[in-house]
Amino acid sequence: MRLVSLIMVATACSPPPVIAPSSTGLPAPSVMARFLPRAPGPALCARGNDDRVSRYFCQSPPPSPTSLLELYRGLGLDPGTPGSFVALTAHSTALGIRSVNPLNPRALVFDGLPRDRLSRRRFVAGGFTRGEPIVELVTRDETTQQLRFFVVAATQPCDETASCVLADRLTEEAESGWTSTTLYEDLDLENTALDCLRCHQPEGPGTPRILRMQELRFRWTHFFAPKTQSVTGFEALLDFFTAHLTTERYGGVPGDVVLHASDPNALSQLITQEDSSAQPNEFPGFTIALERESSGQSATWEALAAKAASGEAIPVPWWGLRVTDLENQTAVASQFQRAVRDGRRTDVPELRALHTEEVERATGIRPISNATGREVLVQACGQCHQPRRNQQLTRARFDALRLDAMSPEARQLAADRMRLPEGDPLQMPPAFSTVLTADERARALEALLP
Ligand code: HEC
Ligand code: HEC
After folding, report:
1. Residues lower than pLDDT 50 in the chain
2. Residue with CA at minimum distance from ligand 2 atom 28
3. Number of H helices and number of E strands within the chain?
4. By alpha-carbon position, which residue is closest to atom 17 of ligand 1?
5. Ligand 2 centroid to 389 CA: how many Å?
6. For the whole model, what pTM was predicted?
């Protein structure tokens, strides 16, 4: 009932202006694929990997899944059937931080619960957000027991002619009709902006790899949680259905499964089962909400945000329910829904980067207000360029947390990389995760070249 009336309210609003695509044919911040290595790692299939993802892709002849669902089924995942679990989140602090919101959530699909101790077979988890046909996967090697991360990058027909528009990337079309797929393993991505280990091996080389879920416990503030008593989990779900249909598959998950079965509790169980319950900056949503309700602020959240701003931890999720402005979100949702319903492909609006500026500043997408040049460098570069990351990579020659120890040449190179034009794959910081104003860029440059 509530769902139906919300959808009707949404449809009554007037459309917002269409966001113009950038010259690359794909509007910012759809820039992740740009950072993939030109070729996948040499001889991935000769590495002796003993895991479900490598085994699937290294069959002969190699499979070429033409849709997200076909890929998942090939890996043994089938959302909506027994044994497969799903959890959708309306806010993410992972690679897709700027792309994920209630209208364009991140859909996680996984199995392996509970662990069958008699079988060697281990879990697989996949994550997909519309915007780019990139699938993130993790599984465990059944011989070495190490977690292994992968990217599957697909191409759509529009990629062949460099003519992709938002309708190709943000509607159900994004999830099928794939013309090819390429598999990359974490070690092939380590010196790219898509490095998985900077978050999934937070203490650096030689230390444990972990699954991540900051909102590990009840009051999963941003997860769709229809089965719990969490009001917030229900709100996010309602927001989603102001843009999408229950007959649609999103992230490989049938709409009715999104509606009834998104289950963050199952993801929490997987995280615990896979020895990842020590999350470096866990987000205790229940405590944070209580503190905000009683005093209008949360000391717990502020402390976590400070830890992230210092470069010590990945961003902390926003304390509030929505990362977007509700009015804007509602207008965009209704424009999206009408464009899809009427088959007007060119009217499909941008669903990503809808965060308010306040949320962007609180979650590390932008530096904190009035940041000094040095603070800009720590906050915009320190997540990737710092002592705990692999020091054998070229990336380690720039260290945002040890600016004073850097040679004038290294500082000059950092400044040069910051001055590259938008859209250049060498421009720093990468636009999929970070936004700087011209002013902030200028202050950072001054700190680099005093
Ligand atoms: C900036 C930090 C960050 C980076 C980089 C990152 N992840 Fe994650 N990842 C997360 C967080 C946080 C979650 C929990 C869900 C969320 O917030 O989206 C997560 C969740 C996942 C999940 C679901 C299982 C789980 O651990 O909860 C998969 C699969 C995954 N990531 C794969 C990858 C792969 C593959 C890469 C590299 C291409 C990668 N991630 C890079 C932070 C990151
Ligand atoms: C999302 C992770 C990420 C962020 C954030 C980031 N970088 Fe990078 N940076 C990389 C990676 C990966 C490389 C190595 C590949 C390359 O050279 O493009 C790199 C390379 C560099 C290099 C070249 C180092 C060398 O000697 O070869 C410089 C300089 C640099 N970054 C500066 C910056 C500055 C300045 C910022 C912040 C304004 C920043 N980066 C933010 C990931 C990041």
Report:
1. 1-29
2. 414
3. 17, 8
4. 92
5. 12
6. 0.94
